[in-house]
Amino acid sequence: MSVIPSIVEKSIIRFDVDQVRKDFPVLFQEVYGKPLVYFDNAATSQKPQVVIDSLKKYYSEYNANIHRGVHFLSQKASQAYDDVREKVSGFINAKSEREIVFVSGTTEGINLVASSYGRKNFSPGDEVLISTMEHHSNIVPWQMICEERGAILKVIPISDSGEILMEEYKKLLNSKTKFVSIVHTSNSLGTVNPVKEIIQLAHEYKIPVLVDAAQAVLHEQVDVQDLNCDFLCFSAHKMLGPTGIGVLFGKINLLESMPPYKGGGEMISSVSFEKTTYNEVPFKFEAGTPNIADVISFGVAIDYLLTSDRKAIAEYEQKLLSYAIKSLSDIEGIRFIGTAKKRTSLVSFVIDGVNALDVGMSLDTQGIAVRTGHHCTEPVMDRMKVPGTIRDSFAFYNTMNEIDKLKEGLIKAIRLLKK
Ligand code: PLP
């Protein structure tokens, strides 16, 4: 039996934002004497009370190291930890829980694949494809391994609206291409990419594809079998869970063919000074004591989402997006950066004559948390010819009323800054 607290009774089947907000204690506070408006969800989402409680429960009731102890606490913690691997597997519809590797987050997942798969499979002159709209964590690991292996990093261009130029992508695919790594949903433009089609095209050349799903998993159901991706990464903290834990999904034959990434305890089958043999997948990639507490509360975050009406949530978030675009469009001098047809619930923009950082700081004094700058996507900013943007990213616990406050806040900020 699972020891993870059940939240099934807290289901939000019929979506009611006022009810849902009550699950997120952080939202009920004042910042500089103003009610907090939290629009930095793409950086990290807030956590429901059940997730917070599960951390306390683990540390106060059954903290123990896992898979090594015969005692009661160790077995209870091991069971709770192992249950989450199965839960994650179901959440993304993997074929088996053996395809789920726990990592510290999206960044570590991509680094693992770049180092392990790349070191084994890339040779001088090989090509690796990414797009212009990648987060730095889906650029730098590939630059590093390409430099080491003498491979060449190629970049798929994007349009002015922030969409992948599919014809250009097709032209870049060839027999030298050894890997494609692509973002599902852009954190700075909001674009939702046609990943299924991108994967299909790569597979025609037998090229494996990694999907960076960091910004997708909170907002839509991601199905790895439907996408037919070879690898997929995401972070718990962007989907209601704790920081420090994330997932690398990999097709079992690929994971089995890859060498370990880190050495240490747990990842071995036997060790002697003459020869060490490795544990089976996924443990081969999980050296050392894992992040037990955060894995367990990640499981609770998944339960929370699974017992929600995700379709209703997605529709509501799209309404927030349309409402924000419509109402902010009235602001004089505003220019949206990222106007793709298919977008997640975030807006990114610049305003003529004012600096994005100054606007962010002014909004902060009004209790409104937004993100400003390049959002770890400097090449996107170069492509769009802006130094940075103001990004408001919405989650299902945000309201239209908060968007009204944002609009008022922006007008006030512009007035002050233009004085
Ligand atoms: N990829 C995308 C699209 C992101 O938005 C982020 C974080 O903002 C990352 C990767 C990196 O995620 P993490 O810092 O959790 O590893």
Describe this protein's structure.
This protein has 419 residues and is of the alpha/beta class. The chain folds into two domains: 6-48 and 309-417, Aspartate Aminotransferase, domain 1 (Alpha-Beta Complex); 55-306, Aspartate Aminotransferase, domain 2 (3-Layer(aba) Sandwich), CATH 3.40.640. The protein has 14 helices and 17 strands. The strands form five sheets. Strands 4-10-9-8-7-5-6 form a seven-stranded mixed sheet, sandwiched between helices. Strands 13-14-17-16 form a four-stranded antiparallel sheet, covered by helices on one side. α12 packs across α14 (400-417). The protein is globular and about 75 Å long. Pyridoxal-5'-phosphate binds at residues 105-107, 135, 137-138, 183, 187, 212, 214-215, 235. Residues 105-107, 135, 137-138, 183, 187, 212, 214-215, 235 line the site of pyridoxal-5'-phosphate.
